Amino acid sequence: MAEIAIETVIENKNKMDDYYSPKPKLKPTPKPKLSLPVAATATATEKAIAVATATATETAIEKIKNKTVDYPPKLTLPEKRKLAVTLVYLTGSAGYHSVAGLFRGKKGARYYFIHVAHAIIREALRSMTYREWQYLTSTTRHNYESFARGKHFLPQVVHLERYGGTGYWIGDKKAKNVIVYFHGGGFMISASKLHFHFCWSLLSAVDKDQKPQPQRHQQRQQQQQQKVPITIPKTSVFFVDYTLTPHAAYPIQIQQCVEAIHYLVTETHHPFSSITLGGDAAGANLALAVLSHMLHPHPEIDLPLLNCANRTTRASLSPSPVPGSGPRSGPSPIPGSGPRSGPSPVPGSGSRSGPHSSVREDQFAGLFCIGPWVSFGAYQGWTSPGENRRKDMVTDDLGTTWSRKYLNGRKGDRWNQPVLASPAWWRGCPVRRALILAGSEEVFLSSIEEFARRFMAAVPNSVFFVGPDEGHVTPISDRMAKYTNNRQGKELMKWLAGIYETLEKSS
């Protein structure tokens, strides 16, 4: 038995060494060129713009697949000097906000440590360029592998070949149910370890009787030798790593996310009814873009996921004006969306009865959006950008700046700004239940309220919850200050448990 154990340890070490050793670059296989459909009546200028756009997208995808993008960036000496000065300034700023936070009054966040942390993050986001951020922060893959080592499981990386995205498994890919997670960060900042710890906590909420404890290879091989049955967890997470801006721009990130769903359906053979979509901030924007593509295929994505039923006519899908964009107009109120409200009641959201209670194979099990970034600009009448600018960790003008890198000269549309979509756009949405989360101290609250009103008008079994005294993506960001007891997080865990309890009963 001792000899077998020694051989197992050696074999396990060889596997780990093989994974972390550098791999030779493979010669990329040629792919058909992308083409953007152009109307027959388009002018010569419009045709030229369409061709240039398609060419730019194709070039960016090839750079991503060939790993020739400048990421992480290598700073020049002048850039490093500027970064050093910025870091000294931020150190002083942290001391200032630590003292000023004691006298914040009602204009600041309710909790002192959260107020100080948000103020420091705001200063950092304002002061540092995207190159400095990407230079200082680790890549999403590095953080995933570090997280995997801490949890003692072998990383499982999936390369999505068509559009150059990547996926990471947390848990067993043979699990019956999958949570597909799209991380936030303004499309510009990589996923942190906080994101992976948050996803780990989601698995704990879903499998109450079986905490996620990936086994070491040694333990797994010993079980196989002793013919002990290996328990496969009920749920796993597929974490999507899309290309950050400005190395890629819209719609490449959406293409990569759509391909991730396509991989799960065609390669791992997970039906839509076993998949839950989720994301925070920009990641929630991408989750909604996937649904938009399923309802109304994007002209630059040639991976149709599902021909959704009840598709409305194009005549009824013109962009709906956002309340507050005209003179003397204010935001449309949503029941239960006040500063300290709970979940908003909608028809069917409090009961599992009715036509939407049965599990359908052509519907996702659920969708959850944490502080979704649904608008790239503020409209007249939206009050949260001004009221919460000293409470939240982001500012509205910063979101506008980051969105320019994502759009890269393109105009906003209903695929990249969900708040522009009317209720008719979402009719027939292939999701069984939906949860939209926001904080009462969030800068984006007004835009999220407007989006929720439109989405919930078309999608039954939807819930909109506003966490009192909470800011942007609190379930994730507050983990920096070791705060995990937040209302949004509790609501999400309860909602997820209900989703998978229903799936278990129907199976």
TrEMBL record:
Key words, A-Z: Hydrolase
Domain Alpha/beta hydrolase fold-3: 236-309
Comp. bias intervals (Pro residues): 320-346
GO MF, any single term: hydrolase activity
Biased composition (Low complexity): 347-357
Region (Disordered) location: 314-359
InterPro entries xrefs: AB_hydrolase_3, AB_hydrolase_fold, GDXG_lipolytic_enzyme
Keyword Acyltransferase belongs to the record: no
PANTHER family membership: AB HYDROLASE SUPERFAMILY PROTEIN C4A8.06C (PTHR48081), STERYL ACETYL HYDROLASE MUG81-RELATED (PTHR48081:SF31)
Protein name: Alpha/beta hydrolase fold-3 domain-containing protein
Species classification: Eukaryota, Fungi, Dikarya, Ascomycota, Pezizomycotina
